[in-house]
Amino acid sequence: MRKLLWMVCMGAFCASGAWAQGEAYRNPALSPAERADDLLGRLTLKEKVSLMVNSSPGVEHLGIKPYNWWSEALHGVARSGLATVYPITMGMASSFDEEAVKEVYATVSDEARAKYHEAHRHGRFGQMNEGLTFWTPNVNIFRDPRWGRGQETWGEDPWLTARMGVAVVEGLQGPRDAKYDKLHACAKHYAVHSGPESKRHYFNVEHLDPRDLWETYLPAFKALVQEADVKEVMCAYQRFEGEPCCGSNRLLAQILRNEWGYKYLVVSDCGAIGDFYHKGLHGTHPDAASASASAVANGTDLECGWGDYLQLEEAVARGLIAEERVDASLRRLLEARFALGEMDPDSIVPWSRIGIDTVDCATHRRLALEMARKSMVLLHNDGVLPLDKEAEGLVVMGPNAVDSVMQWGNYEGTPSHTCTVLDGIRERLGADVPYEKGCGLLDNEVSAAEVVGRVRDAGTVVFVGGISPALEGEEKNDVHRPGFAGGDRTSIELPQVQRDILRTLKEAGKKVIFVNCSGSAMALVPELESCDAILQAWYPGQAGGLAVADVLFGDYNPGGKLPVTFYKNTGQLPDFEDYSMKGRTYRYMTERPLFPFGYGLSYTTFKISQGRLDRTSVKAGQEVTFRVNVENTGERDGAEVVQVYVRKEGDAGGPLKSLRGFRRVELKAGESREVVVPLPAGAFEFFSPATNTMEVEPGEYEVLYGNSSDTPEENRLTVELL
Is 529 a catalytic residue? Predict the structure, then answer.
């Protein structure tokens, strides 16, 4: 049917004589490359460079409409009015469910397409956040929980980040065999970027161990390029080994294009080209013309910023760059616009049939709730959970219990309705459930004892605290509070005011359930004593309050797993500005953390039997299959995540173990099932000091498995690669 509709539309368009004058670029029957080549030859240099900035004007005499390349869809269409707001990516990563993530981003792309075509129906062209090119996913490795933008990533592990990132791209870009791409996704921020926020415009990552580069910071980008066919890559702000990333020949030319075969466009982070020449920032170039020439020559095709690329006309005149090199970059941009159907009438683009009523529709709202449930990670439970709905004396406390905007995270959209945690609990128990704020996130006007006195009759307190996107996030230079600086954190401890209230509640004999909202790991050692249960809720999106209530009262059995390590305290962290992986994350940390990567409790119990490999010796480059039986031995239905890790024996400088496969399995009470986890050739790929790159080398490999990175000693198998 879709093909038939396309043929009918094409016939009508052809009959109109739209390319009767021999203008090949107007002919949708030709390939994007053919159309781009034709159009390129019709443009002046001034027109060319005008099309290489994110807010591109139209070229009226050629029928080119204005287009703005900058749109966001981190966890739902962002900054464009009404949209379904899903949990932050850190929460979705906790699901360990690739298919669910892909389904989420397929709905995001539906809403994006609907908004794009609706804007055209109202005569709007070229406005920010109404385009088809979305600058997501963020696949930087979350190496340190102090980084405020870590909430935008998929965690600390390269394999998990790659799998989730591929799912995002496939959900956004749509079927590869479609006539027009649904959207274009963007792998960012390339590369080796994860704070500090306040220094990103002049920070230099230098003397990085090649192992860390190839084994930690680059794998997710490579996967998105080679597996997902991502259509954009965004280069990062900072310098890498002395060169700004957006002008790095090594990153952009040698690795991205030559080694990985990337053939699409590279966009700068916003304002990054200006950092090349502004005093006090990178200062590697004298002016905008030379900075722009260097960026384009090294492969940055599109400038997001303030128009520095408009100086490319001067750069050509000064001999800093040839016009042919400008053409090479613009050709990639034009091909992208043709591939999306942006240059053609909406009427012949099948995606235009997605109606505006799909935005924040009932189906998407249900999916937001489902994903919020899957994002919940139960960290601690002394048996108090699940709560009895019939029990009396429950009070809700805490500043985050009523903060709907907190739940949206950053790079957020605007839902039609947000269910707060207080809303969710009252929906379960009734509108008369009392609420006492107790304190702010960081301070209080009265003592903890006085606050606790206000709930003296309560037997159980659900305290919803943690922190907020208002405190952690992108370059928040106006945030100067104890524990926070410029968008990052200087301490990962729970704010003292909340810590004091939780302790005082416990001393008063209350049952205390702590719901923590944050974008990353919190140090919660004292809370293991002061709280009977701890639920990690992240920033859970528009349906977060319902999801929290479902978990607290046992209507949903939590099955989320941590995509980051929860450290005991800030003292367990290395220097924030040191990009070495030594001592960081579960892969290199020798101390015991508070909660390990991959950890999460359930209301039921699971038995993971002795695992087995289909072969114990194979030729290097062949796939190995891991199998294990998982049984739900408890009385509730639930989900378990089988996690498979690999370690290369004799690899002195290598990681202790690395996640190389996982499967989330839903089991009814008493049900048992065989879980199959393929270990492709890449699962045995590690850094080779001999060749200074990643290789699958012959040798012995350990396969470790369990339900977290803290794998039992007996859960070890060995495979030999010949």
Answer: no
Report field, pTM of the whole predicted structure over 0.85:
yes
Work out the pLDDT band at 12, boundaries 50, 70, 90: very low
Q: How many residues does the chain have?
A: 722
Task: Kindly write down the DSSP assignment for every residue of 99-161, as one continuous string.
Answer: HHHHHHHHHHHHHHHHHHHHHHHTT--S-TT-SSBB---B------TT-GGGGGS--S-HHHH
Question: Which residues have a Cβ under 8 Å from the Cβ of 1 and sit 6 or more positions away?
Answer: none
Instruction: Give the active site residue among 170, 269, 344, 370.
Output: 269
- What is d(CA 582, CA 584) in angstroms, rounded to the nearest whole number? 5
Q: Is residue 333 part of a domain?
A: yes
Hey, is 505 helix, strand or coil?
helix
Nearest to 399 by CA among 432, 430, 444, 460: 444
- Total domain count for the chain? 3
Tokens 């012995």 appear where? 700
- Show the CA angle centred on residue 383, arms to residues 379 and 384, nearest 5°: 90
Q: Is 70:411 a contact under the CB 8 Å cutoff?
A: no
State both tokens at 474. Answer: 């992108």
Same domain? 638 vs 547: no
Question: Do 205 and 248 have their domain in common?
Answer: yes
Per residue in 565-602, pLDDT tens? Answer: 999 999 999 999 999 999 999 999 999 999 999 999 99
In this predicted structure, the answer to whether residue 9 has a pLDDT above a threshold of 60 is no
Spatial distance between the Cα atoms of 447 and 453, rounded to a whole number of angstroms = 10
**Predicted pLDDT at 4:** 43
Question: Same domain for 317 and 413?
Answer: no
Q: Is 705 helix (H, G, I), strand (E, B) or coil?
A: strand
CB-based contacts of 147, cutoff 8 Å, min separation 6: 194, 195, 196, 197, 488, 520, 576
Place of tokens 């997501």: 136
Q: Could you tell me where the DSSP H helices lie in 240-283?
A: 272-275
Claim to verify: residue 544 and residue 626 sit in the same structural domain: no
pLDDT digits (tens, 9 = 90+) for 264-282: 999 999 999 999 999 999 9
Instruction: Copy the structure tokens of residue 225.
Output: 């390029």
Element containing residue 361 per DSSP (H, E): none
Annotation says 269 is catalytic:
yes
Residue span of the structural domain in which 691 resides: 606-721
Same domain, 583 and 630: no
* Contact (CB, 8 A) for 517 and 465: yes
Same domain, yes or no: 354 and 377: no
Distances, alpha carbon 373 to alpha carbons 344, 490, 515, 558, in Å: 41, 30, 14, 7
pLDDT tens-digit profile of 55-107? 999 999 999 999 999 999 999 999 999 999 999 999 999 999 999 999 999 99
pLDDT at position 21, please? 57
What are the tokens at 602?
Answer: 């359930």
Average pLDDT, the chain: 96
Q: Find the catalytic residue in 98, 181, 360, 472.
A: 472
CA angle at 95 for the pair 90 and 98, rounded to the nearest 5°: 100
Q: How many other CB atoms sit within 10 Å of the CB of residue 120?
A: 14
The torsion angles phi and psi of 484, rounded to 5 degrees, stand at: -135, 145
**Residues 231, 185 contacting (CB under 8 angstroms):** yes
- The DSSP output letter for 519 is S
Would you place residue 6 in the very low, low, confident or very high pLDDT band (cuts 50, 70, 90)?
Answer: very low
Q: Which of 258, 285, 267 is nearest to 329 (CA)?
A: 267
Region 510-532: mean pLDDT is 98
